[in-house]
Amino acid sequence: MEASDVRRTLSRLRVEQVLGAIVAVLLLYLVVDLLRQLVTGTLSTSTLQQYLWRGIVVGLIYGLAGIGLSMTYSILRFANFSHGDLLTTGMFSGWSAAYVIAGFGAYNLGNLLLVRPNNDPTPGAVGMAIDSQPVAILGGIVVAALFTVAIALAADRLVYRRLRKQSSIALLIASVGVAFVLRYLIAFVFTRSNRAVPASAPETTLDIGIASTTVNLHEMTLVVSAIVLMVGVHLMLQHTKLGTSMRAMADNRDLAKITGIPTERVVLATWVIGAALAGIAGYLIVLNTGTITYTRGWTLLLPVFAGVILGGIGSVYGAILGGLIIGIVDEVAIIWLPNEMTMAAAFLLMIFILIFRPQGLLGGVETA
Amino acid sequence: MTESPADGVTDASTDPESGASSSDPSPAGWGDGTAVLEIDGLQKQFGGITAVDGVSFDVEQGSITGLIGPNGAGKSTTFDLVTGFTRADAGSVRFDGRDVTGLRPHQIAQAGLVRTFQITREFPDMTVLENLMTAPPEQRGESLARSVLPGTRRGVIEQERELVDTVWETLDLFEIDHLAEEYARSLSGGQRKLLELARAFLTEPELLLLDEPMAGVNPTLEEKLLDRIHDLRAEGYTFLLVEHDMDLIMEHCDRVVVMHQGAVLAEGEPEEIRDNERVIEAYLGGNV
Amino acid sequence: MTDESDDVGEDGAGPREQDSRGPLSDMRTTVREYTDRITEWMGERSRWKADALVVLSALVLVYALITLLAYGQGLDMNGIVNTLVRLTFLMAAYGLLVLALNLHWGYAGLFNIGVAGFMSVAVFTLAFVSGGQGVGLGYPIWVGMIAGMVAAAALGLLAALPALRLRADYFAIVTLGIAEIVRFTVKSDWVDDHRVLGREVGLGAGSSIQVPSAQEYVLKLFTEDGTSRADPTFVGAQLFELGSWFGIDRPTVMSAGYALLLVVAVLLAYVLLSRIAYSPFGRVLKAIREDEGAAQALGKPTSRIKIYSFVLGCALMGLGGMLWQASRFTVAADAFMPIVTFYIFVALIVGGSGSNAGSIVGGIAFVGLLLQGPRMLPRVINEQWESVPEGTNTIYEAVTALGGADIMPLIGYSIANIDLLQRLFVGVVLILLMLYRPDGLLGHRKEVAAATDLSRPEGETDD
User: What does the domain layout of chain A look like in residue ranges?
Assistant: First the structure.
């Protein structure tokens, strides 16, 4: 054995495998501790299942939002820092529509359009829940998607298109500018206040898994919508010509290099799909968590990024998987960490992945 | 598959005289037998493709060795492996008797093994002067502390002035002195080649790996540069060139290594290689 | 009388030519001596004179504009001066931070969007080390400030070691993640209650805490205990006297003192970074930014160099954070949200990334024109306009009023929400910059990185 061979194996061993070993040990410890807590009764199975359920619900949102972010990253070659504000756009446009549909004629139009800036009318009075106002809620989803797509296309035409040939950093910076414009325009129009939007939805207790879990109807709506949309995206990617070319552009770096800048058709599709999903994701997260404010989407940006990176940039399925993992980690980490730190844990996970496996779990592509 | 150099005379003296110090090259011409670079069994796979498959050859001190082969033979990859830009799957590289396998690129360059790039890698947003001033080794001012602290900065400024002299000599030699204050990105292709070469020269290397150095350079200047290469060779520098210009190779190289499909096909003096049937067939596209 | 035998003019004129003008030539000599010494300090090649001119021009322009606005607000002399002092303070704070970011990004090509995190780490380390009243360790402020810079540098090292080999945008996301992790950590109750070295950490768990500040040192130069009502020191008395001639009250004079401290800090940072820029180290940094692989092929240990510059930049960011935020005496974790980092970036882009002078000019322009200026407008409008427009509660009402040809409600609403419009304006400016002038104001300038003049040496002939 040559000294060079030893040196080579040693350096490979040093970095990847040692860190992998540490992570494996840590995970093992957590799993063992989890079992211990379950067994000793510190943690009940129903609580654990509740955490898991909530994690999945939130994770689906991250995944839905992440699809667009991942596509933009791999096809348009830049990290879109305005993506979070696309979620906010969907939130406000969708719920504005929902309130107008539900309360038109009965309440002040301004208060409806601007989604209760003065906390009047109350969500309960309008009946803003899926069981009492299904048309409004579902209509909101549609409007959220359409409006967000319009905004994203406008941003592309006005800003990103002119920077297509620039470095990914230049586009990133421009997207920060777009984020500012969107966010503060929304704040200007809809005011800064943080207010409740949906009314509470009926809950049921289901006996699934190993324990009973309380599930409310809005969560169900969210889950069903998200899954339907993801299946739709999957079908489009696998069975349409457009989908195939999108996958090719996203997955295959050499192909992307040869064909250069993607066709306008693929670009259009990227924005349409990505923005629609983002808008809907924003709308749904408000349906689930109850409050709306102009910074909501921005605060979601990093977790969504974390999910996309975890899953692997360029892979739509990776974005979904990554989003789910981040959502679950954020919820389940409460078992070990104080509440404020769970998201920090998710970020640490993302940083870890970026450093040791930048292609993520399912990805394999790098842009530029 | 590893082809042993069947044809031609390879100089049998791969004499591991590892004591040969690089700081004081003897003016003896090539043929004194010391191998300054010993490559043994390099392997590299990319995905499913074997780019370099058991490459072994030596480069003798003070020689001008040519590395040729059809496109895709693995020449640039071999350069990358030797200079640390890519990590080899297997095999070893010895430079001046010292094992440099697996070392980082900057460490190998510091040891005296310097390369140029086929597609020039000048620093675009820096002037030609800045590009060249970056190259010389052991600049005291490259330490943050020494550049900033009052006492030591004076020494830095002195060294800078010396470097300026050297750099202007090089600028004149390569006839790009009129471009000195231009940004490198505004240079033509041929001018960039010259810049790349000049920059490599300024690193005071012991062995220069030149990746298609003459592509795009006009014949007069090419002659001049080759003269310079020969002069330097007489001073003890060693060169390993990748070139497609057969005349150049035949006329100026002491020895030629032929690669094909990731392995060494033949080694020897230019005349032998020229008459080597397998080499001819490889170039014509057949499999050997 | 100066010693004229040493005096050689710029054009090589001997001492003889200079002796006829007496005191004027004395002054000129002294000035030249000082400027030469400054040139030596900056780095022989530094274009500091040209830079100073540009910076001063920018300052004059912005001062003029803000003075105009302040006057329009109906402020008296003291009010105007106070406004300018606050402005200067902010410009200097931004200048310092932008210089640090320029080292990272403009020189080394490291895209760091976690600046706020490094500022925050320093400030809260200062709070802990120098905190009093039962919380924190209670060391003197200057100890705390050094500790803060060390903490920021350490965090920078921690971030740099694994992450510097990442692509620019991945590295950016890592820095952002780190900054947010810092913010969450400072905000958390758990950390707040934790005990380190026997003392409660007490970082406020999200609410504001008292932070000891270097401002104390400056204030104590003016009065016995640093408050404006106390007995003045000798120095303080003179300055208060001077101030009262112009109608400027004590607090304003004392604020001016602290703003001056910040200006000194910026100038020192500028000198430091100028020396770095005009040196082989600066040159290698640029080379690394341009093409790290090629720099490695020339034998440069790029990782090490990147780490040094990154850590230095982080320490400067920590200093900037402490001098700036800690001047308010109370700080909360949320004072370090990502928007702070983005503002610093905008300032850098406005000024021109890669240029140290551009960093300062960017700070001046950003604070004056994009930050403070717009926010002064409401009071100007209120002051100048007879009928103060009633701001409506929502934009809906304002827009419907447009139907009745009444734009006042909309104007009123806009004024009431001027800070939102200001931020929107920043976004628009950023987009326009990236589209039409990504080099900013001074980014196109040739700042050749060398410690000496690179022109062809004397006595050489061209072949």
Answer: 1-43, 60-298
B165 shares a domain with B117? no
Please say whether the beta carbons of C103 and C317 come within 8 A.
Answer: no
Write down which chains contact chain C via at least 3 CB pairs under 8 A: A, B
CATH number assigned to the domain comprising residue B245: 3.40.50.300
Phi then psi for B47, rounded to 5 degrees? Answer: 60, -120
- What is the distance in angstroms between the Cα of C434 and the nearest Cα belonging to chain A? 6
Q: Which pLDDT tens digits describe chain B residue by residue (288 residues)?
A: 333 443 333 333 333 433 333 343 434 444 567 889 999 999 998 888 888 888 999 999 889 999 998 888 888 899 999 999 998 889 999 998 899 998 999 999 999 999 999 889 999 999 999 999 999 999 988 988 888 888 888 899 899 999 999 999 999 888 888 999 999 999 988 888 889 989 999 999 999 999 988 887 888 888 888 888 888 888 888 999 998 888 888 889 999 999 988 888 888 888 888 888 877 777 765 444
Find the farthest-apart pair of alpha carbons in chain C and give their distance in angstroms, rounded: 83
Shortest CA gap A63–chain C (Å): 18
Interface contact A340-C188, CB threshold 8 A? yes
d(CA B104, CA B85): 7
Q: How many domains does chain C have?
A: 1
Of B110, B143, B164, the CB nearest to C281: B143
Residues B203 and B177 in one domain: no
Residues with Cβ < 8 Å from C100, sequence gap 6 or more? C115, C269, C313, C314, C316, C317, C320
Burial of C154 (0-12, 13-18, 19+ CB in 10 A): middle
CA distance C306 to C110: 8
Provide the number of structural domains found in chain B: 2
Tell me which chains share at least 3 CB pairs under 8 Å with chain B: A, C
B115 and B129 together in one domain: no
Amino acid at B250: M
* Residues of A in Cβ contact (< 8 Å) with C396: 109-111, 113-114
Asked if C416 is an interface residue toward chain B (Cβ–Cβ < 8 A), one would say no
B67 — phi, psi (to 5°)?
-115, 110
Domain boundary among the residues B186, B202, B221 is at: B186
- Which among C290, C299, C451 has CB closest to B123? C290
CATH number at residue C160: 1.10.3470
In angstroms, the CA C421 to CA C374 distance is 9
Question: Model pTM?
Answer: 0.87
Query: Of A301, A154, A170, A77, nearest to C431 (Cα)?
Result: A170
Distance between CA C460 and CA C463 in Å, rounded? 9
The 10 Å CB-count burial string (b at 16+, else e) for A96-131 is: bbbbbbbbeeebeebbbbbbbbeeebebeebebbbe
B208 and B85 co-located in one domain? yes
For residue C170, the chain A residue with the least C-alpha distance is: A354
Side by side, the strands of the sheet bearing B113-115 are B113-115, B207-211, B238-242, B64-68, B255-260, B263-268
The parent domain of residue B129 ranges over 125-186
Look up residue A211 and give its amino acid.
Answer: A
* Nearest residue on chain C to A303, alpha-carbon basis: C177
Assess if residue C326 is contained within a domain. Answer: yes
Alpha-helical segments (H) within A118-167:
123-126, 134-158
Chain B residues with CB inside 8 Å of C305's CB?
Answer: 142, 144
Residue C158: which domain range?
Answer: 45-337+352-362
Within a domain: C378: no
Q: Is residue C203 assigned to a domain?
A: yes
> Does C30 fall in a domain?
no
Q: Is C46 on the interface with B (CB under 8 A)?
A: no
Q: Per the domain annotation, does B282 fall within a domain?
A: yes
Other CB atoms within 10 A of residue B178 CB = 10
Residues of chain A with C-beta less than 8 angstroms from the C-beta of C111: 169
B160 and B204 together in one domain: no
